[in-house]
Specification:
Elements lengths: L3 H6 L6 H27 L24 H30 L5 H26 L4 H25 L7 E2 L3 H27 L16 H28 L4 H26 L4 H23 L2 E2 L19
Antiparallel strand pairs: 1-2
Length: about 325
């Protein structure tokens, strides 16, 4: 049976730098589509295309009658194909690398399935007229995609050997506490958005049944807890004399958290101007990436030198 991946792998060998750039491209495009998705909400264009997968019942693309809101929503949908192309490049680069990076290939396919799942959830969100719970799930799935693309980017820059710890076990446990708390912070942020004023469309859109100011305060408490854990991580890494790059990742996280916290408080006291909300969404992506990079920097994977399978190897018949 003809396998296009095996066929291409037999004729193209990307350099390690190309594989790394492919992984980074997938990560960057994931962040971009999160930002453009925020632009859809903040411009009230969530129902600019009032159905899915078509834009209208009679048209696959936006029409003149839908105006700027239709163009914004349809443009965000089209960006999904750009993300898919970046993910496809990542899969192909990992599959064609010599030796075959099976771990990267699996991570690339994980990206693909998350993209597909989020596209379907996006359609459900449109059909449910921007149900806030569906919108929250849409953002959390985007966060899942950021997780996989960040992990892929990191794995592309290291070997496939068994992970070796670079810091004592208690420090690694602290990092997982930081990851878990940050995820709670992001999830709480979706509740703040779901109960807040930016519903995503000018029509009557249902909101989460929570007091917005109360949810914002809970979100702020979670943010302060993340900051406390991040400071503790930075201090502990200095005490245990962690590698320089690991300490740099902890420092980067503190800088991102400081900027994100400042934006959060300013937007709260200025009644959520659209520009600051968009900046806060971008900051949310950067915070999550920075937290993951801290956790991933606490271990290393050495390179493993393996034989390149012969072109007649049965393994080449699988993706």
């Amino acid at each position: 049976m003809f396998n296009p991946f095996a066929y291409l792998a037999a004729r193209w060998t990307p350099s390690p730098r190309i594989v790394q750039r492919a992984a980074l491209a997938a990560l960057v495009m994931t962040v971009v589509i999160v930002i453009t998705g925020g632009a859809v909400r903040l411009t009230g264009s969530g129902l600019g295309c009032d159905t899915w997968p078509k834009c209208t019942d009679d048209s696959l693309i936006t029409t003149q009658a839908q105006g700027i809101h239709g163009a914004i929503e349809f443009g965000n949908r089209m960006l999904t194909y750009v993300v898919s192309a970046a993910v496809g490049w990542c899969i192909l680069a990992a599959r064609c690398a010599k030796p075959w990076r099976r771990s990267l290939t699996k991570l690339g396919w994980a990206q693909f399935w998350v993209v597909c799942g989020n596209a379907v959830l996006g359609g459900i969100t449109v059909h449910t007229k921007l149900n806030p719970w569906s919108v929250a799930g849409h953002f959390l799935l985007a966060t899942a995609l950021i997780t996989v693309t960040t992990l892929t980017w990191q794995r592309a820059r290291e070997g496939d050997g068994a992970p070796k710890p670079r810091v004592p076990a208690p420090v690694r446990k602290l990092s997982w506490a930081l990851v878990a708390t940050t995820f709670v912070l992001i999830a709480a942020g979706t509740v703040v958005t779901g109960s807040g004023p930016h519903a995503g469309d000018s029509s009557e859109v249902p909101r989460m049944p929570f007091d917005w100011a109360t949810t914002a305060h809970v979100h702020a408490i979670a943010a302060w807890l993340v900051c406390a854990l991040a400071v503790a991580m930075w201090l502990v890494l200095r005490v245990v004399d962690a590698p320089t790059d690991t300490r740099a990742r902890a420092r980067d996280l503190l800088v991102v958290l400081l900027a994100q916290g400042a934006i959060g408080y300013v937007q709260f006291f200025t009644e959520l101007p659209e520009v600051l909300v968009a900046a806060h969404m971008f900051g949310s992506c950067l915070v999550w990436i920075a937290v993951l990079r801290v956790a991933l920097s606490l271990r290393e994977r050495p390179a493993v030198h393996t034989e390149v399978p012969a072109q007649g190897d049965p393994q080449l018949s699988t993706v």
